[in-house]
Design a protein that fits this description.
This protein is mainly α. Among the domains are: 89 residues; 68 residues, no CATH class. It is built from 20 helices and 2 strands. It has a two-stranded antiparallel ribbon. Helix 15 packs antiparallel against helix 16 and helix 15 runs parallel beside helix 17. The protein is globular and about 80 Å long.
Length: 449
């Protein structure tokens, strides 16, 4: 009889437990749909109770509990009385932390957003930094542009005198993260631009606007980072610092790549130690990028044919079109420094074939044209017409890459100031609207302004 009771009890649980779980699941779905409906209607106050119940009782039902929950909890914080404010702040924080517990895939972005919330609430710099550092270590490419800048700013202010190597390492990591984000969104824009403009959906147009704004924000961050670092990233500081750590890291490809890039970007390439770094880099990592820097040394030493072979090898080694374009632009910059302007322009156009929105390539061509004004003309008008060609390229840069508009506008303003005046054209007998052929290496026809 006792055994029969046990069997009946077991059967009762087997039958009833799924029913209980089913009822709980149904309640979760009902309350979720209720608060989701209120959320969609922007009735955040009405959504609160059902949302909170879901977060308490169905934490793994869907990540939307947390995506929507931030807005609902922040709305509650806005409406909170002074006595309720502390609890409301903790609730917002709980949304972020509970999401990380159950849905950790977007860890870096969630931590970055949490840091932004802490900044808004006036948290201490130490507390803000702790969240930013966790986000950065998880994935710097998933941080917001402003938080990338904030993180580096704290590092710079803390370690600029006591540990400059950490500052440079952080700058490199941040810059690499920014470049990865730039690559990601540039590819998305190129994919949209490759479609027939008349067939683009409103969603695609909106997405392109969002992506372009992200690129603009990244450009602002890059400029801010460079401005911050410029005080200590001088050749006078970089050369002894790199020499100090060279023996320790001469086999470390990442350290060498970063050290070489820093010295290249700061035009410290005339120092013999730069050649030492590059040679060590090529040995540690015979990569396309290492080949580029090594080719630059060969070019500097007059080994032009060998240098061009390394340039070609670097480009052929890379399969990703955006990275290939980046290498081609780097080659153009190196050739420009060596005075090989026609070859540099050719590489700029090759870069644009692979990455049509790489506005910096057009700006490089523009700057090379402008620098050739005196040598590509024999009178006032012909010299100043070179600036028309430069202006055209700068305007093209701005049109294909709105993210660099601020920089392009500086070029444009400069070139407009140097265009031939109405008086110049009248004296030379040149009609506005006519065509003008620019000679020498530029060899382009432009319209007289």
């Amino acid at each position: 009889m006792k055994k029969m009771k046990q069997i009946l009890t077991l059967l009762f649980f087997i039958i009833t437990v799924p029913v209980v779980f089913s009822q709980a699941a149904d309640e979760c779905n009902i309350k979720y749909n209720l608060f989701k409906g209120d959320y969609s209607a922007k009735k955040y106050g009405e959504a609160f109770d059902n949302w909170k119940w879901c977060m308490d009782n169905c934490p793994t039902l869907t990540v939307n509990i947390y995506k929507y929950g931030v807005k609902i909890a922040e709305h509650a914080l806005e409406k909170a009385t002074p006595l309720e404010k502390e609890a409301a702040i903790k609730l917002v924080e709980r949304v972020y932390l509970q999401r990380l517990e159950h849905y950790p895939d977007d860890k870096a972005r969630v931590l970055s957003d949490l840091a932004s919330f802490k900044i808004e609430q006036g948290a201490t710099e130490q507390e803000i930094f702790s969240w930013l550092e966790k986000s950065f270590k998880a994935d710097p490419t998933d941080m917001s542009a402003s938080n990338i800048y904030k993180y580096f700013d704290i590092i710079l202010n803390t370690y600029r005198t006591t540990d400059p190597q950490r500052v440079f390492d952080t700058y490199d990591e941040v810059s690499e993260g920014v470049e990865l984000k730039r690559e990601e969104y540039s590819k998305k824009i190129d994919a949209i631009n490759a479609k027939d403009s008349l067939s683009l959906t409103s969603k695609e147009k909106k997405s392109r606007e969002i992506y372009q704004q992200i690129l603009t924000n990244l450009t602002i961050v890059e400029a801010g980072l460079d401005a911050k670092l410029s005080e200590i990233s001088t050749c006078e500081n970089l050369i002894p610092l790199n020499k100090k750590y060279f023996e320790e890291f001469k086999g470390n490809a990442q350290w060498l790549r970063r050290a070489v890039s820093r010295m290249y970007n700061k035009e410290c390439t005339d120092d013999p130690f730069y050649d030492t770094l590059v040679e060590a880099y090529v040995k540690a990592d015979p990569s396309p990028q290492a080949s580029l820097f090594y080719a630059g040394i060969l070019l500097k030493n007059g080994e032009t044919s060998k240098a061009m072979g390394y340039f070609k090898q670097a480009v052929e080694q890379e399969q990703d079109l955006y990275k290939k374009a980046g290498y081609q632009l780097k080659i153009a910059q190196i050739l420009r420094l060596q005075g090989k302007l026609s070859e540099a322009r050719s590489y700029c156009y090759q870069a644009l074939d692979n990455a049509p929105t790489m506005g910096k390539a057009y700006l490089l061509v523009a700057s090379m044209y402008a620098s050739s004004a005196n040598s590509c003309g024999d009178d006032v008008v012909s010299k100043r017409m070179v600036y028309v060609a430069a202006l055209n390229k700068a305007q093209k840069a701005r049109s294909v890459d709105p993210s660099i508009s601020a920089l392009a506008n500086k070029y444009i303003a400069n070139y407009k100031e140097n265009l031939p005046s109405t008086k110049d054209l009248f004296v030379a007998g040149v009609a506005s609207g006519s065509t003008h052929k620019i000679g020498c290496w530029i060899n382009e026809t432009v319209i007289v302004p």
